[in-house]
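#help-structures
NK: newbie question, is this the right format to request a structure? protein is VOC family protein
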Amino acid sequence: MTVHLKHVAIASADPDNASKFFVEVLGWTIAGRIDSRNARGYYVTDGTINIALLNFKNRPAAGMEFDEGYTGLHHLGFQCEDIEEIVDRFENSGFAPRHDVNIAQGLGMNPAKDNAEYKMTGPEGVMMDVSERGWVGTATFKPRPA
């Protein structure tokens, strides 16, 4: 059995701003809104994956392992058609490159790397990978030229 990533949740201090990132920078759509006793936020999608951007209203709903006010996860990866265009879109929307991580990992237009080409800042400070080539093991991965 194969399992495919279809949903990710990001704990967000400001789901309105976070949803704008996905819509304005990445061109995604808002698939739904939530305002329950446990959380407020949005579901955004690119048609393949769903990401929930949730401001939890109480700690039990978020999970007791998360401190009150916790936001984020580690990082998400996005494949794009034009790396320079997407980096520009990030920067023009106020989401800076993570030069510290890019330098430490030898990222950039590095033909020796198998996946992420740039680490960028995303909403809530969540790190984002952006890549034209994609990730090994995915259907859309483009191997290095020989």
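mod (FA): yep, format's fine, and the tokens are attached above. The longest helix spans residues 15-25.
NK: thank you!
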